[in-house]
Hints:
Blueprint: H1 2-70, H2 80-92, E1 96-103, E2 106-110, E3 114-121, E4 127-128, E5 134-141, E6 144-154, E7 157-161, E8 174-182, E9 187-193, H3 200-205, E10 208-210, E11 214-220, E12 226-233, H4 234-251, H5 255-270, H6 273-282, E13 287-295, E14 300-311, E15 317-318, H7 320-330, H8 333-354, E16 359-363, H9 366-369, H10 372-385, E17 392-397, H11 404-416, E18 420-426, H12 434-438, E19 443-446, H13 448-451, H14 463-473, E20 477-481, H15 486-493, E21 499-502, H16 512-523
Parallel strand pairs: 14-16, 16-17, 17-18, 18-19, 19-20, 20-21
Antiparallel strand pairs: 1-2, 1-7, 2-3, 4-5, 5-6, 6-7, 8-9, 8-12, 10-11, 11-12, 13-14, 13-21, 14-15
Helix pairs in contact: 1-4, 1-5, 6-7, 8-10
Amino acid sequence: MHTVSSARKKSLRVIGILLLGLALGTLAGFLGGLYAAVQAAQFVLRDYSFQMIRQADDAASQIEIIQHAFSRITPDFCSDAEIASMRSYMYASSAVKDIGRMRDSSLVCSAGAGRLPSPVAMPTPLMVSTHGTVVYGMLPLYFAPGQKGIVLGIHSMDIVLAPFLFSSLKRDGMDYMVLMVNAPRHQIVRIAGAQIPVDPNWVLSQGSLRTRDALLLSRCSRINSVCVVTRESRKIIQDHNEFLLTTLTIVGASLGLIISLIVLFALSLRRSLPQQLRRAIRRGRLALVYQPIVDLETERCVGFETLVRWRDRDGLPVAPAIFVSIAEERGFIDELTHWVIRRSFQEMSELLHKHPDLELSINIAPSDLASQILLDRLDTYSALEGIEPRQIALEITERSTADLASASRAIHELHSRGYKIHIDDFGTGFSSLSYLHELTIDAIKIDRSFTRTAGTDSVTATILPQILFIAHSLNLQVIVEGVENDAQVEFLRTRGHVIRVQGWRFGRPLPAHLATRYLDQQQDQEFYGAPRPHLVR
Length: 537
């Protein structure tokens, strides 16, 4: 009896341990699954928000172009020619449904409605945004009776936003709300998307919020007065948890299998792009290539732009726009910039010594611009490799100049040490053209989106000559990106300005040793006038 009793206790103890292990394993799996689902939902919401913000920034860029064309009241105010011109800009813009002209807070004419029989007084605005845009809200449209649209006022202009500007980004199980904001006054006005009840203070804090039914995230543009609230249904998280619970119920009998699932879960986290990227930077597993920058008149190479390339653990290339934004979002962009400076100086030092007039361009993030660490690293590595600071050009985006005073101080300090400053992707941001003179920029790089229309009948093709004229009047060097064919080259040559170009027409990005060969071939007389070598095509 004693033996039977002991065996029974042992069996009960084993069963109890197994049941406890199963219960703890199931609980751990459930909690782990819940955590993973929430993290995945937040990641998806962040990505969704950034897509919306990019769409809003692109719309703001289009509106700014229109604003520069029509912001002043001229003798042609609401003439047939001006209305025709407004229609051309309207048709070329994906963000604008109508362009109107106002005088004394009354609508006088628009691209869609033409000249009105008599001026129509605009209603009291709902809000004036942080950047001075007047938000009238949803108003009846004169060119489409019975229809309404979001109307904005910018100086003497009346802008009607396209009704489906953001709806193309709609995702199943998710909602969005696009807001114009006045941050100092804690005001928000919805201009697109679902009506999601939120606190303006929470929106401006750019935080996340869990409710009984959904997970919400707020993000605001760094360059204009737009915030986006995205919402994901909790049903997605619940479905994911049910799947995990079902799976763990089937396989949870074995504690070892539960542990193995936890290990696999941890490994899956380690394979995430942000962590892969950070490890790649610290282990030097990225690569640099250099795209030639060519003087258009002589077609001689005058510099190279440093470009970063990265492949993930599966060997698949990741677009620079993706991994740079990841580094900025996760707060380690300075590590990437540091690596690029150090490696590019090492790889190109010999070429820069051999060609003292050659420039090496390096992209830096907005957060790098005012960093004392950046200055120290530039000085350290230029001295270490024997590179003259005047041979280094730092490329910043327009959003880097949002804080004009801070940007001006940083650029002054860089200039005082001999480095040059270029504005990259000019025309795609939200900066005022007057910033160029105030910031003492050395050069602007015109975005490829304008280059694509060069030599065509596109309405936006008229913008490129205007930018070139303004740059020339400010005595700024111009580098035109995305030059890919002879038609674009001929178009730029007729502008009458000193222009540098960059694009596949003159050379694709090359490793350092091929960049050296590219420059040597240009200097060899037998290559003058000959077709570009296969090496650069």
